[in-house]
Amino acid sequence: MVVAALAVLLALVMLLHSRIPNRFGNLGSLIETFLPWLGLFVPVLLLLALVRRSATALLATVLPVAVWLNLFGGLLTDKTAGGGDLTVATHNVNADNADPSGTARDVAASGADVLALEELTTSAVPVYEKALASTYKYHSVQGTVGLWSKYPLTDIRPVDIKLGWTRAMRATVTAPAGQVAVYVAHLPSVRVKMEAGFTARQRDKSADALGEAIADEPLKKAVLLGDLNGTMNDRALNAVTSQMRSTQGAAGSGFGFSWPASFPMARIDQILVRDMEPETSWTLPETGSDHLPIAARVKVDTSS
C-alpha cells in the first residue's frame, strides 16, 4: 500500500503541478523546471512493486506513467520537417568562455540567417564581431545581448526588463519572406538555496516586463531568442509563453535540453515564435559555453 500511495502521489504532483504554490521558496516553479525528470521515479516504484509482488502497487504505477506520457509523450516523437524560409539560432556564450572566436565559428556553421548571443562581455564583443563579420552583414549589440543577421536590421532598441541595465533588445529583420520582429533576451539567473528555496523573483519580474513588450509589439510576426532561465512548464514565464509557441515543442525531436552543456537537464534556452510556423528545431553541438546553442527553421510566409 505504501508503494501504491507513492505512485498516486507522484501522479498527482505531475498532474497538478500548476496548483503547487510558489509561496514557499517558489516550490512550484522549481518542480516545473525539472518536471520531466519526475518520470525517473516510475521505474523505482515499479521495481519496489515487483519486489513486494503486489498487484495493487503494480496497477498504481500505471497512473504516473499515464500522466507522464500525457504531459511529455508528444516530445518523444520526431516532429521535424523540411521547408521553412528563415533559420534562427541563439546561444548563451558564457561570460567566462575561453574561446569566443571558436564559439562564434561553431554557431555560424549552423547556417542561421539570424543569430542571437547572450552574456556578451565588453572585452569579448570585438572578438565575436570579427569572427562573425564574414557571415553576417548586419549586427547590433545592446548591453550584454547581440543580434547578427544576413538581412537588414532596423528599428533597433533595447528592451527594459526592469534590471537597471540592458539584457534584452528588439530589432526588425527584413527577411525575403517578410518583416519579423526579433527579440533577444537574457532573463536573470535563478538559484536553489537551502534557506530561501528557488530564488526567482527578479527573473519573474523581468519575464512579466518582457511579456508586456512583446504584447505591445506592432508587427504580427515575432520571434524571441534567448536564455529565459526557465522552461516552458514554469508558470512564472506565462507572460511570455502564453502568447508564443515553442519551436521545440511544435517541430523538435526530444526534449531539446540545453543546460548544463556537460549534462543537459533542462531547456532554459528558448526559441519562441508568434504568427509563424515552426518547421524544424534542434540543439547544436557543445561549444566553450556552459549552455548548448539551439536553432530552428520557421516559415515566415504562412499565406500558402
Question: What features would you describe in this structure?
Answer:
The strands form three sheets. The chain has a six-stranded mixed β-sheet with strand order 3-4-2-1-14-13. The model has no long low-confidence stretch (mean pLDDT 94). β1, α6 and β2 form a beta-alpha-beta unit. It is elongated. The protein is built from ten helices and 14 strands. α1 packs antiparallel against α3, α1 runs parallel beside α5 and α6 packs parallel to α7. The protein is of the alpha+beta class. The longest helix has 15 residues. The protein is 30% helix and 26% strand.
Question: In this structure, how is the largest beta sheet organized?
Answer: 6 strands, mixed
Give the end-to-end Cα distance, rounded to a whole number of Å.
Answer: 57 Å
Subunit arrangement of the protein: single chain
Mean model confidence by pLDDT = 94
- Overall spatial form: elongated
Runs in which pLDDT lies below 50 for 5 or more consecutive residues are: none
Bin the strand percentage.
25-35%
User: What is the N-to-C order of secondary-structure elements (H for helix, E for strand)?
Assistant: HHHHHEHEHEEEEEEEHEHEHEEE
* Structure annotation, total helices: 10
Which strand order do you get reading across the main beta sheet? 3-4-2-1-14-13
The secondary-structure class comes to alpha+beta
Q: In total, how many beta strands?
A: 14
Name the helicity range: 25-40%
User: Radius of gyration over alpha carbons?
Assistant: 21 Å
